[in-house]
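Dear H.,

Thanks for agreeing to be a second pair of eyes. The structure we're designing against is below in token form, covering all 79 positions.
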């Protein structure tokens, strides 16, 4: 793996976590300011979507750390 793949994974992780924070924040706001008309359903679905994005973002972050560690160790053993 190259440093290019770690950069791509890092950017993807950041995008997924940004989407998660935004959707959970908007979903929590819609649930806290309930005025009726199905806001609870939409807010709940939006928060579930945000939680899913957060899980994917965290998994990509862990994968980025693993790829960076493995590539560093491989470059040390080759030298």
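And this is the sequence the design step returned. I haven't edited it by hand at all.
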């Amino acid at each position: 793996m190259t440093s290019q793949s770690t950069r791509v994974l890092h950017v993807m992780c950041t995008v997924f976590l940004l989407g998660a924070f935004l959707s959970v924040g908007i979903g929590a706001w819609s649930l806290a300011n309930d005025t009726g008309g199905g806001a609870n359903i939409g807010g709940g679905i939006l928060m579930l979507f945000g939680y899913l994005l957060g899980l994917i973002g965290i998994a990509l972050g862990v994968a980025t750390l693993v790829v960076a560690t493995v590539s560093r160790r491989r470059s040390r053993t080759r030298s």
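Two observations from my side: The chain is about 90% helix and 0% strand. Residues 20 and 54 are 5 Å apart (CA to CA).

Warmly,
E.
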